[in-house]
Amino acid sequence: MTTSAFAAQGADLELVGIQKRFPGFTAIEHLDLKIPPGSFFALLGPSGCGKTTTLRLVAGLEEPTAGRILIGGEDITGKKPYQRPVNTVFQSYALFPHMTVLENVAFGLRRRRLDEPVAKAHEALRLVELDHLAARKPQQLSGGQQQRVALARAIVNRPALLLLDEPLGALDLKLRRQMQLELKTIQEEVGLTFLHVTHDQEEAMTMADTVAVMNKGRIEQMGAPEELYELPKTAFVANFLGQSNLFTGPVVGSTSEAIAVGVAGQRIVVPTARAHRHVGEVTIGIRPEKLSLHLSAPAVDPARNTMGPGRVIDVSFSGVSTQYLITVPHVGTLIVFAQNMAFGPVAEEGGEVWVSWDIEHGFGLEDEPADTPRFEADTTTRSIAAQRRASLITELEEV
Amino acid sequence: MAFAAFATTTSEAEQVPRRKSPVALLLLLPGILYLVLFFLTPLISLLLTSFQAPSEFGDIGQYTYAFRWENYLQVVTDYLPHILRSFGFALIATVLALVFSYPLAYFIGVTARPWPLAQSLMLVLVIAPFFISFLLRTLAWKQILSDESFIITSLKAVALMAPDAHFTGTPAAVIFGLTYNFIPFMTLPLYTTLERLDLRYLEAASDLYAHPVEVFRKVTIPLSMPGIVAGTLLTFIPAAGDYVNASRDFLGGPDSQMIGNVIEANFLVLQNYPAAAALSIILMSVILIIVSIYVKRAGTEELL
């Protein structure tokens, strides 16, 4: 049995051609994924995108409709949850209410008939700094403490792969930040492979080595957090991971180094290496914090793109930075984040402004330009329900 | 008195903030009056009767108030087999009812969760026997299990029963009747706890290397303990004092009389009121002791 011994370190996870259909809808279209051993991998996406289903498939709590799951090269697709070298930190923690904290942590060790379950449980509780509460019942602990117990209960088993199902979702912001750091430290300390599912993009980016952005049952893009943020491939990623200003227009000129796109009569230049499409209608984008705000038309600079004039329609102060909403005729609304280097806003509401940015900071998307040029990440329950409904209707029509 | 056992389990578990308000007391008043009138009064009367002595010059069935504690000694020596049999039967019937009810309640409360309509339908089926008096149902069983019935003749035909054997009148028939009559009382409280059972605990347990049998033993059973305790109490207490199933008119025979039958005979036939009262007090006290030990051992307070 693979679970009879402590795993010395994390193993790699491989998902091959996974598909999961529930009656009425498809949760996962076609998923291929490889997570290297010892890494902290985050699956990021809006609710209903299939990320939790992916996790449950790996844990063995759901069976895939098609495809294979391999851990450390071994096919575990047909194995029951209790036979898999995998442990989960559940979103609800699911700590057994009839057992003490210590017994909760020792549960997995006892099931595997390992030596000294109590001593090992104490050790795991010390790791999450809760050993002094070992005799308590879970419901006597705060949310953050319960979360740490759930983590201890999972890592004490030294699973080849640890699954985290939005375990920080129920915590308040400050505690969440603190737990993110702790989780990251523990992962580095124990060297296990972590698969973390979350809809919090900031959480995914601060914690994970690799982030995969999931949407509608597919992985849209995968890579290091910086790479994903600086060079998003699709409009969904550009808007789900932070915010983006996107423009659609035809390519009006191209060299080996850069392409020029005509947006409302203005030439916007993007480096060829940073654009996925080089001909025809393309969508290009720029992150709001890369934009500079000018109160008068800036001097022409071949290294910078300029857009304007536009009108400031909203200024909102958020401490470190100020967010400006600017409407530019025929282009739409732009978002600009400006660091608060001086007291008070640089531009007043209703004022005329220009924006500019370094050519090197732009990116071109792989997407076909959509009907709606400004693709907003719509993550409300209502829109997910509408998507489901639409896909159901098309499915029914096909039959 | 037996209700005290229920009261301690629930009042400690539901940590309702206690506030003293005149309205609450006023609302409690009818209940208190009712209990004093219909529970405490007969209890005191029963206690006094149990110590009565026969009237010196009276007829059979005439007694005067006294303190004849020998009544207790007398009934224990006379009826010890009946007392032991009662608790034995009640225990076996409770265990059997639990064994039959748990899978049933689990199926209705957990497996059938995706189909609420089927759930309610099955619950109605569990309760349906209550629409017919249990006397009639027990009488029907007497017919079904009589020596001339199809079931018994078939069993004899295939030599599973000896040709001269009976089923009605045996201890097995009484236990069968008790089990049958109390299954709904076991199923309903089990259903209410299992219906609320959070399946995520079961998933967590199987994620932590527990195979299905261990999940059941270590998680499902402990979490459904409140239902098990309530169901077993609702079955054991009335079953121990039951006098219908074991009656000769129903499923019982001379070797299967329970304490309830003895009390009934002493009250109504022999007119030995002190003996009947003493037996009732003994029955009540023994049940109370058993139940309080059981509730304490089961330790359900922390679960609810």
Automatic annotation (TrEMBL), chain A:
<dbReference type="GO" id="GO:0043190">
    <property type="term" value="C:ATP-binding cassette (ABC) transporter complex"/>
</dbReference>
<dbReference type="InterPro" id="IPR050093">
    <property type="entry name" value="ABC_SmlMolc_Importer"/>
</dbReference>
<dbReference type="GO" id="GO:0005524">
    <property type="term" value="F:ATP binding"/>
</dbReference>
<comment type="subunit">
    <text>The complex is composed of two ATP-binding proteins (PotA), two transmembrane proteins (PotB and PotC) and a solute-binding protein (PotD).</text>
</comment>
<dbReference type="InterPro" id="IPR003439">
    <property type="entry name" value="ABC_transporter-like_ATP-bd"/>
</dbReference>
<dbReference type="InterPro" id="IPR003593">
    <property type="entry name" value="AAA+_ATPase"/>
</dbReference>
<dbReference type="Pfam" id="PF08402">
    <property type="entry name" value="TOBE_2"/>
</dbReference>
<keyword id="KW-0547">Nucleotide-binding</keyword>
<dbReference type="InterPro" id="IPR027417">
    <property type="entry name" value="P-loop_NTPase"/>
</dbReference>
<comment type="function">
    <text>Part of the ABC transporter complex PotABCD involved in spermidine/putrescine import. Responsible for energy coupling to the transport system.</text>
</comment>
<dbReference type="GO" id="GO:0016887">
    <property type="term" value="F:ATP hydrolysis activity"/>
</dbReference>
<dbReference type="InterPro" id="IPR005893">
    <property type="entry name" value="PotA-like"/>
</dbReference>
<dbReference type="InterPro" id="IPR008995">
    <property type="entry name" value="Mo/tungstate-bd_C_term_dom"/>
</dbReference>
<keyword id="KW-0813">Transport</keyword>
<dbReference type="InterPro" id="IPR017871">
    <property type="entry name" value="ABC_transporter-like_CS"/>
</dbReference>
<dbReference type="Pfam" id="PF00005">
    <property type="entry name" value="ABC_tran"/>
</dbReference>
<comment type="similarity">
    <text>Belongs to the ABC transporter superfamily. Spermidine/putrescine importer (TC 3.A.1.11.1) family.</text>
</comment>
<feature type="domain" description="ABC transporter">
    <location>
        <begin position="13"/>
        <end position="241"/>
    </location>
</feature>
<dbReference type="InterPro" id="IPR013611">
    <property type="entry name" value="Transp-assoc_OB_typ2"/>
</dbReference>
<keyword id="KW-0472">Membrane</keyword>
<dbReference type="GO" id="GO:0015417">
    <property type="term" value="F:ABC-type polyamine transporter activity"/>
</dbReference>
<keyword id="KW-1278">Translocase</keyword>
From TrEMBL, chain B:
<feature type="transmembrane region" description="Helical">
    <location>
        <begin position="115"/>
        <end position="136"/>
    </location>
</feature>
<protein>
    <submittedName>
        <fullName>ABC transporter permease</fullName>
    </submittedName>
</protein>
<keyword id="KW-1133">Transmembrane helix</keyword>
<keyword id="KW-0812">Transmembrane</keyword>
<feature type="domain" description="ABC transmembrane type-1">
    <location>
        <begin position="83"/>
        <end position="294"/>
    </location>
</feature>
<dbReference type="GO" id="GO:0005886">
    <property type="term" value="C:plasma membrane"/>
</dbReference>
<feature type="transmembrane region" description="Helical">
    <location>
        <begin position="275"/>
        <end position="295"/>
    </location>
</feature>
<keyword id="KW-0813">Transport</keyword>
<keyword id="KW-1003">Cell membrane</keyword>
<dbReference type="InterPro" id="IPR000515">
    <property type="entry name" value="MetI-like"/>
</dbReference>
<keyword id="KW-0472">Membrane</keyword>
<feature type="transmembrane region" description="Helical">
    <location>
        <begin position="219"/>
        <end position="241"/>
    </location>
</feature>
<comment type="similarity">
    <text>Belongs to the binding-protein-dependent transport system permease family. CysTW subfamily.</text>
</comment>
<dbReference type="InterPro" id="IPR035906">
    <property type="entry name" value="MetI-like_sf"/>
</dbReference>
<feature type="transmembrane region" description="Helical">
    <location>
        <begin position="23"/>
        <end position="48"/>
    </location>
</feature>
<feature type="transmembrane region" description="Helical">
    <location>
        <begin position="87"/>
        <end position="109"/>
    </location>
</feature>
<dbReference type="GO" id="GO:0055085">
    <property type="term" value="P:transmembrane transport"/>
</dbReference>
<dbReference type="Pfam" id="PF00528">
    <property type="entry name" value="BPD_transp_1"/>
</dbReference>
